[in-house]
Amino acid sequence: MIVQPSEAFQVIWIGWVVSWVSASLWSGRTEKRAATRETWIYRIVIFAGALLIAPWTAQVLGERPAWQVAYYGTYAFVGVMLTGLALTWWARIHLGCLWSSAITRKEKHRLVDTGPYAFVRHPIYTGLIIALLATAAIEATLVAFLGALLIVLGLWVKARAEERFLSTELAPETYESYRRRVAMLVPFLPHR
């Protein structure tokens, strides 16, 4: 049986989500959690984006794709998506027990600036953005792009809140030096 490209996207995303949630078990003990209004803002925005980018949303709304991607082009987007998701896993494995889905300070927390964190300060978010844009491009609907943009906005809000939290929880001068050296989400862009 040959998996169709659109089915491949769905299977890969489902597999990624299940593995990502399952891996929560190897997260370290939380010492402090950021509780801000921004926390709820980024969560709501990301959740709304996830609902919009889901393929069944366009179907329910009766939205048709704005363009068609050829069979091999679709697999090229699958490759781009897999590259983004591989980046998320590389970053998460590199963080080890310091990873958390929320903005937290873990036991024995320290600044990680090696591996993918030497290129961008938030490689998990960068990988997700790559995978989401590939997904929206293959779905080719306005609602999918709106969903991807909302998730990107939510990740950006979360990244900014995370940086404020970490700069106070870790040595501020160390984190500020890291911010000056390494781009936030896109390698080689200005570092603020």
What's the domain count? 1
Could you say which structural class the secondary elements and strand pairing correspond to?
mainly alpha
Assembly state here?
A: single chain
* Cα shape: elongated
On the 0-100 scale, what is the average pLDDT? 89
> What is the CA-based Rg, rounded?
18 Å
Measured by DSSP, the beta-strand proportion falls in under 5%
Please write the string of helix (H) and strand (E) elements. Answer: HEHHHEHHH
Largest sheet: 2 strands, antiparallel
The percent range for helix content is 55-70%
So what's the CATH class?
Answer: Mainly Alpha
The CATH architecture term is Up-down Bundle
Question: Which labels suit this protein?
Answer:
single chain, 192 residues, mainly alpha, Four Helix Bundle (Hemerythrin (Met), subunit A), two-stranded antiparallel ribbon, 7 helices, 2 strands, 64% helix, 4% strand
